[in-house]
Structure formats: structure tokens, C-alpha cells
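User: I'm preparing a small set of examples for a lab meeting where we compare how different chains pack in three dimensions. I only have the primary sequence for this one, and I'd like the structure in C-alpha cell form so I can line it up with the others. Please keep the answer compact; I'll paste it straight into my notes.
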Amino acid sequence: MDKGEVIGAVVRTRRNVQVVYISIGHRISLDSARTLTLACCRGYRLPETTRYAHKAASSKVPQNTPMIPTP
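Assistant: Understood. Below is the C-alpha cell output for the 71-residue chain.
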């Protein structure tokens, strides 16, 4: 809470995994942040965008590889 305003939430994206902390951002409400986070998880604990960024930063993805799989 910040001056009485709720600015974050704890979300469990699936059973038997650690929680994910989410917060409001520029022009996004907490409810929208929660909805988008859950929509981006696709069976994993972390949202896809976070997982891809972690892989890229950890050099687990070869250079010039598309980050988003094609259907």
C-alpha cells in the first residue's frame, strides 16, 4: 500500500508453485495487470515475456533466434 492505495498483489499462476508479485504501472490498473499476467502464463509460473527475457539474458537462446514461437 502507498498512502492507503493498493498498488500490488500476490498471484499464484498455477497450483503448487511460488507466487508472482504484480503491481500497477503507467496507465494500467491492478485488475488489468493481474488479468494480463494470468493470460501470459500459458501453463508456466512466469509470464512468457519474463521467461523469454530471462532466457535471452542468460544466453540460453542463440543470437538472432525469434523469441516468439510461430504457430
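A couple of notes for your slides: Residues 30-39 form the longest helix (10 residues). The first strand starts at residue 8 and ends at 11.

User: Perfect, thanks.
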